[in-house]
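WARN no homologs supplied; continuing
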Amino acid sequence: MTPPVFQHGALRLYLLALLEDGPRHGYELIKSLSDRFGGTYAPSPGTIYPRLAKLLEEGLIAAESTGRRSVYRITEAGRRELDARRDELAGVERDISASVKRLADSLREDLRTSMRGLRADLAATAETARQAARTARREAPTKGSPPRVPASERFSTESQGRLKEAEMLLQAFRDDVRVELRTHSAREPITEVTLETLRTVLDQARIAVRNSLRRT
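OK structure emitted
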């Protein structure tokens, strides 16, 4: 949904400002807007292209086809329009900054809500695993069993094996996330919102694991 910062004519004016920095095709304009909003908002092609068509009709921009894409550039008439509306453009920039903050605050609140649910799920899963382990120990066969191993030795061996498995799970998780991050970064820059999300998720996961270990 288009944020309220783009009132009537504001997005059109902002597109002119983006083109003042140099020619771009439609996707690059969408990407520039997404970057400006820190990844919290990206306009759809159905939002951008009709406004570009209107700017073309008014002679404020020109287009040149390069293969299957059109590259847009600002015209002298577009520069005059932009110069006459610098104060209005400054207001749009202020509104964008305020909108980015509102969207980021909203995302953080949604993330906190999701993390509360994740902690509850992790706690429930951990408790189920503990109950299953207790049940398995109670129901373990006693007749025909191999020679009894001292409890301290048995628990030490089992603990070391589980520690090794836990460390392997953590390593696999780290490797998977690292690959995802590098793949994403190769396509587009890591935004502050992405970093904030990763930081929050990892902090909450750490808390959930620590609480689970304390209850074991």
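The chain is about 75% helix and 5% strand.
OK
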